[in-house]
Amino acid sequence: MFPRDVISAGPLILRPPVEDDAEAIVKMCDDPVAARFLPSLPRPYEHDHALAYVREAPGRWEAGAARYAIARGGRPAGLLWLGAPDRWGASDLGFLVAPWARGAGVAATAARAVTDWAFDHGVRRVELQSEVENVAGLRVAYRAGFVEEGRRREARRLRDGRFADYVVFARLKGEAAPAVEPYLPFPRGGELDDGVVRLTPMEPDDAGDFHRMLAEPSVAEYSVTPPGTLDDDVRRCRYTGYWWTSGQRAELAIRDAASGAFAGHIQLMQVAPVLGQAMIGYSLLPGFRGRGFMTRAVRLLVDWTFARTALHRIVAGTDTDNTASHAVLERAGFQREGVHRELLPRRDGTRADDLHWAVLRPAR
Ligand SMILES: CC(C)(COP(=O)(O)OP(=O)(O)OC[C@H]1O[C@@H](n2cnc3c(N)ncnc32)[C@H](O)[C@@H]1OP(=O)(O)O)[C@@H](O)C(=O)NCCC(=O)NCCS
Predict the structure, then answer these.
(1) How many beta carbons lie within 10 A of that of residue 231, not counting itself?
(2) Do the beta carbons of residue 118 and residue 171 sit within 8 Å?
(3) What pLDDT digit, counting tens, does each position of 74-130 carry?
(4) Which of 78, 119, 121, 313 is the S-S candidate for 173 at Cβ 3.0 to 4.6 Å?
(5) Which domains does the chain have, with CATH numbers?
(6) Helix or strand run (H / E) with residue 167
(7) Which atom of ligand 1 is nearest to the CA of 78?
(8) pTM value?
(9) 108 within ligand 1 shell (Cβ under 6 A)
(10) Measured between alpha carbons, how far is 341 from 355 in angstroms, rounded to an integer?
(11) CA of 333 to the centre of ligand 1 (A)
(12) Are 336 and 356 in contact, with CB atoms under 8 Å apart?
């Protein structure tokens, strides 16, 4: 059983919740972000729910778990709960930060401190799960030194009835737990824009346009992956934040800056940090071709990549007869590096040669 300690963590104090916290607990739980990512929170969240949370806490401690209020500057800033360790010494961790305290490292600091404390009290493994769309939750896990272990597909049901995928993280007692900076920083609220073209992280609302674009014959002709269903593409769009935050890929919609309309898709993939290399890939809807949109999109993504990441080489592969794509790459500063013979499988069973391109990080 955990002792009912007060834990001090930099500017934070973690202490058992008290009835005076009830009003603040209502405000932090009756919040759209909390409701979105903690589907088991009552909605609407009322005063009686907060009182029950506080009054049940002693029983939870008796049963081997821990329930904490996080306080900063004497004011409630969040909640944190640790499950009773199982027979193998593994505990589950969950947390919530009040809207007025977010974005200041509260969750990462508290998660790290309570995990270290649990290791001092018989726990050998602390687990944490974050929904793939919960970018802040994912970042907290990386910053608090947790290691990604895998994904649980359709693990929990959300309020809208849909089952969501979760990423599983854990920290083990005794292992180093460095805070991991994102290899591909997510452009928070961010967009890349040159006044004509706007790049925005792909979202589930883009899935329909994206799906229709992939089915377009002139796009399908150069795709090496077979077309998926609309559901596959919705799922893919839900993964944008996770792929980005975990450094696997950056996925962006290309929009007409004037109207906001979806014009195409551009991505950085095959990210290889040891080589400092990633591959760019893109497609544009026919109605937006012939206006320099893709050259602008490639330039925006290349400039962002060299400004915000440690990548040194951005490569591209094109079918040798895809002259429109060759022109885009040339205008965006790529150079031809060679030919991979019979690399690209075609739908008719034959294989096409792949022209290999690269642009290098500009010398300072
Ligand atoms: C997840 C949550 C606890 C984060 O609390 P927090 O105190 O703001 O977290 P931190 O300040 O320690 O870190 C937040 C990180 O997410 C990033 N972040 C937050 N919102 C983001 C967004 N919409 N897009 C991209 N990044 C975002 C912050 O920049 C920060 O990243 P950094 O460490 O690289 O700078 C809080 O958003 C919350 O209570 N959400 C609802 C409940 C929940 O999701 N619980 C966790 C379940 S896993």
Answers:
(1) 10
(2) no
(3) 999 999 999 999 999 999 999 999 999 999 999 999 999 999 999 999 999 999 999
(4) 119
(5) 7-172 (3.40.630.30), 192-360 (3.40.630.30)
(6) strand 163-172
(7) 39
(8) 0.93
(9) yes
(10) 9
(11) 37
(12) yes
